[in-house]
Backbone:
């Protein structure tokens, strides 16, 4: 692996499934991978969906660790040549930054059994692949805003809709 850390956005190497990595199984036979993710429910779901099926199919043991997105920790491991992680579920921005700084490895898409041309430009990076899609949904209560916003400008027009000016804090909009 060298002194670099392999970053895979959302553990895509495993998430693209045991099937995508099956051609690599002989190279890894009898080895283990240390996969680092965000802990909690995210990592538990990855364990059930990706890590356990991958291990069962390939015989490669997955050792897990948790990561809070601290780029300095990754940089310190690389600079001290004491890299102990193989695959990291990093945020898109974090992976891009580490890739730009040269502290993580670029990916060899052919070794993953993937055709890079099949991904849209927005989906591919030199140092990782995406495994998570998300969206933000904006809603309003017609009972409180009968003439609700029609455009994004309307949505943020706090003169027209002063109720929208309040700050929402806490999880799930609890203030």
Residues:
């Amino acid at each position: 692996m060298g002194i670099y850390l392999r970053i895979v956005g959302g553990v895509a190497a495993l998430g693209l499934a045991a099937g995508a990595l099956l051609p690599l199984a002989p190279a890894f036979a009898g080895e283990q991978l240390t996969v680092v993710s965000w802990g909690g429910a995210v990592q538990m779901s990855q364990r059930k969906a990706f890590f356990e099926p991958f291990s069962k199919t390939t015989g490669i043991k997955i050792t897990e660790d948790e990561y809070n997105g601290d780029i300095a920790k990754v940089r310190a491991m690389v600079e001290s040549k004491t890299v102990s992680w193989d695959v990291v579920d990093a945020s898109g921005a974090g992976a891009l930054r580490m890739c730009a700084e040269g502290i993580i490895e670029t990916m060899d898409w052919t070794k993953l059994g993937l055709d890079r041309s099949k991904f849209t430009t927005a989906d591919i990076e030199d140092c990782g692949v995406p495994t998570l899609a998300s969206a933000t949904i904006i809603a309003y209560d017609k009972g409180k805003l009968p003439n609700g916003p029609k455009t994004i400008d309307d949505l943020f027009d706090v003169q027209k809709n002063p109720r929208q000016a309040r700050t929402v804090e806490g999880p799930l909009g609890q203030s």
In short: Strands lie at 6-7, 32-37, 61-66, 87-88.
